[in-house]
């Protein structure tokens, strides 16, 4: 067997890939599989963005760019932070990356020494612990609970922090819970963080624009500006502009940190494709109309899913407030099914018996739950809800 470096052993993601692969196999055999396992919008990239990319190719954007990004893209990123977030960054405080994922990777690899601790509220996106493992950091899970609407309590954060802590990750709207943390909740966390001056905050705002509560968006810097010297805000165009395949994300933070992150990126991917950078610039500069259209369609689906699940007494679910996921609790269903003992087995059972693909909650450190993605048309959602109602109501 090939000997590989320890850092790549045991990187998770397997149960998501397993469900994806199984769903595809069953669909290939002619089964009618309803896919509620997607992690990307089912919308197309808006036309004005595609047109801008075509033009960019015609104008020769086919070469290397600066590692931090084309100056025009960096301007668009700074403008976006000002327009959408009331946050002001200088040119040397922002950089682009190959997706928000690489921005996060750069941040963790730049800040974390082996055995430093990273506090990750759970349930969480699986990539946070995976990157932490690559950085040889120690992962401290800060649990949030269904009963508390999956919002992190300040006393839980306080318990998780110590003089070994280096990073706290915040992700609102959240993947996988679909919950949005209020200004008050963030402010309470900010208060705790003031007592730990060596800890950096990583604010993953990738689902910022996909919200359904009508409340204005806030991240931790909006409620606790004094954290600015030790906060990295991560965002990108993947979700808001239906641009997952273009691979453009960005980070904003203290200039000395961004400079180091650029060094790191300069020795790995250098930058994302010049044409993608121009497309992202067009997205950010083009305003928010298409984003609002998509968010409004997703909002209707969030409601459809919440109503449909509420009719099934055995499944508890907090209606999604943002992102395109919710995380129903299937514990009572699991207890009622013969031969199904946990969410992994339930994932297989739902696929085989009902033809519904959902990702088991264990992939997000949420055993007993399933992640339902409503990045699927409302007909698909309606059919899935009907099958669930028929089976469990
Ligand atoms: N952050 C969260 C919470 C996500 O769910 C995802 C994608 O699933 C990302 C970041 C990555 O975004 P990108 O496609 O820009 O790398």
UniProtKB/TrEMBL annotation:
Residues 32-387 form the Aminotransferase class I/classII large domain. Its cofactor is pyridoxal 5'-phosphate. GO terms for molecular function: transaminase activity. Keywords: Aminotransferase, Pyridoxal phosphate, Transferase. CDD domains: AAT_like (cd00609). It is an enzyme of class 2 (transferase). It holds the Pfam family Aminotran_1_2. Its EC number is 2.6.1.-. InterPro entries: Aminotransferase_I/II_large, AspAT/PAT-like, NHTrfase_class1_PyrdxlP-BS, PyrdxlP-dep_Trfase, PyrdxlP-dep_Trfase_major, PyrdxlP-dep_Trfase_small. Belongs to the class-I pyridoxal-phosphate-dependent aminotransferase family. PANTHER family: ASPARTATE AMINOTRANSFERASE. This is Aminotransferase.
């Amino acid at each position: 067997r090939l000997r590989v470096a320890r850092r790549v052993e045991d990187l998770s993601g397997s149960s998501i890939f397993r469900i994806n692969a199984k769903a595809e196999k069953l669909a290939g055999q002619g089964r009618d599989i309803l896919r509620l396992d997607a992690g990307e919008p089912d919308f197309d990239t808006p036309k004005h963005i595609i047109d801008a990319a075509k033009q960019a190719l015609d104008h020769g954007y086919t070469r290397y760019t600066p590692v931090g990004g084309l100056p025009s893209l960096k301007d668009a990123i700074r403008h976006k932070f000002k327009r959408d977030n009331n946050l002001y960054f200088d040119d040397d405080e922002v950089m682009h990356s190959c997706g928000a994922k690489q921005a996060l990777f750069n941040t963790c690899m730049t800040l974390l020494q082996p055995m430093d601790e990273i506090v990750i509220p759970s349930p969480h996106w699986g990539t946070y612990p995976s990157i932490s493992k690559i950085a040889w950091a120690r992962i401290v899970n800060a649990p949030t609970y269904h009963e508390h609407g999956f919002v992190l309590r300040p006393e839980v954060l306080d318990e998780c922090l110590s003089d070994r802590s280096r990073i706290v990750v915040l992700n609102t709207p959240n993947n996988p819970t679909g919950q949005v943390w209020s200004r008050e909740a963030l402010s309470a966390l900010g208060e705790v963080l003031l007592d730990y001056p060596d800890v950096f905050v990583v604010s993953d705002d990738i689902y910022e624009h996909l919200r359904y509560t009508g409340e204005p968006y806030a991240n931790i810097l909006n409620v606790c500006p004094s954290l600015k010297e030790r906060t990295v805000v991560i965002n990108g165009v993947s979700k808001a502009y239906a641009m997952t395949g273009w691979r453009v994300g960005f980070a904003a933070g203290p200039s000395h940190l961004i400079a180091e992150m650029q060094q790191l990126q300069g020795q790995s991917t250098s930058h994302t494709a010049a044409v993608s950078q121009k497309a992202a610039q067009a997205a950010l500069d083009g305003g928010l109309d298409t984003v609002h259209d998509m968010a409004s369609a997703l909002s209707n689906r969030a409601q459809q899913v919440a109503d449909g699940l509420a009719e099934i007494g055995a499944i508890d679910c907090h209606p999604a407030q943002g992102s395109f996921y919710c995380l129903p609790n299937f514990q009572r269903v699991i207890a009622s099914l013969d031969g199904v003992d946990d969410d992994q087995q339930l994932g297989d059972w739902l696929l085989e018996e009902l033809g519904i693909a959902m990702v088991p909650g264990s992939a997000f450190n949420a055993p007993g739950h399933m992640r339902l993605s409503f990045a699927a048309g409302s007909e698909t959602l309606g059919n899935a809800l009907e099958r669930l109602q028929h089976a469990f109501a």
